[in-house]
């Protein structure tokens, strides 16, 4: 990732964090506790029309290795 893209990402995260202050707190809480095998990760998307998509996974060692890249 080039320097310009990193700057844009930093600015976008700053705006996102200001708009959604609970998300950075959530990320910090998860980061401080850490991830381990068999932790369940669940995601739900709910549209204004009522459509909803949900999925979930139990983390494996390879998943944790992927998340570790973003530390």
Q: Hey, roughly how much beta strand do the residues contain? A: 15-25%
Sheet of most strands: 2 strands, antiparallel
Give the class from helix and strand content and strand pairing. Answer: alpha+beta
Spatial sequence of strands, sheet with the most strands: 1-2
Can you write the helix and strand succession as a string? HHEEH
Number of domains: 2
What's the gyration radius in Å?
15 Å
The total strand number stands at 2
Low-confidence stretches: none
Average pLDDT, all residues: 93
Q: Characterize the overall form.
A: extended
What is the distance, rounded to the nearest whole angstrom, between the alpha carbons of the first and last residues? 15 Å
Q: Count of DSSP helices?
A: 3
Give the assembly state of these chains: single chain
Write up this protein.
The structure is a single chain. The longest helix has 17 residues, at 3-19. By secondary structure, the protein is of the alpha+beta class. 52% of the residues lie in helices and 20% in strands. It has helices at residues 3-19, 22-33, 61-68, and strands at residues 40-46, 52-58. It folds into two domains: 1-33; 35-71, no CATH class.
Strand-helix topology:
Blueprint: H1 3-19, H2 22-33, E1 40-46, E2 52-58, H3 61-68
Antiparallel strand pairs: 1-2
């Amino acid at each position: 990732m080039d320097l310009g893209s990193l700057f844009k990402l930093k600015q976008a995260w700053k705006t996102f964090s200001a708009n959604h202050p609970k998300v950075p707190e959530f990320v910090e809480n998860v980061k401080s506790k850490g991830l381990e095998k068999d932790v369940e990760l669940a995601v739900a998307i709910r549209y204004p029309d009522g459509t909803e998509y949900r999925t979930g996974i139990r983390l494996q060692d390879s998943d944790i290795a992927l998340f570790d890249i973003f530390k």
